[in-house]
Amino acid sequence: MINEDLRRLARNLKTARRARGITQPAAGGAVEKTRQTIVNWESETNTAEPSSAELSVLAELYGVSSRDLRFAELERQSAAPRVEPPHARVIQGKGTVLKASPESKRKRG
Questions:
Q1: 76 forms bridges with which residues in the sheet?
Q2: 81 φ, ψ (degrees, to nearest 5)
Q3: What is the pLDDT of residues 49-107, one digit of tens each?
């Protein structure tokens, strides 16, 4: 059975990549992997995950932190201006906004 941490990582990898408008082949090229490897990492049913070094490269490419990719609940939202509560951290992407939800911060302790 796949644990929830790995599912969250898969969702966040896909959300962050799409928010920046980056293709799977381009993401794979950044970490010297194939498109299929990126597909596997983004799949909530696969047990594969990037190494710490690969995750760092992808985080930089996607404009988020490795920690947020692993532990936050990134949500894809429209880039329309909106008022955020003071506890929400907003991460700007290309044309979208990624937000680490307050619930995900409580989970990490």
A1: 98
A2: -60, 140
A3: 999 999 999 999 999 999 999 999 887 643 333 333 344 444 444 444 555 655 555 44
Domains of the chain: 4-108 (1.10.260.40)
Give the DSSP per-residue string, 21-35. Answer: T--HHHHHHHTT--H
What residues have CB less than 8 Å from 68, skipping those under 6 apart? Answer: 12, 59, 74, 91, 100
d(CA 23, CA 48): 19
> Which segments of 1-109 are extended strands (E)?
74-78, 89-92, 96-100
| The predicted structure's pLDDT at residue 11 | 94
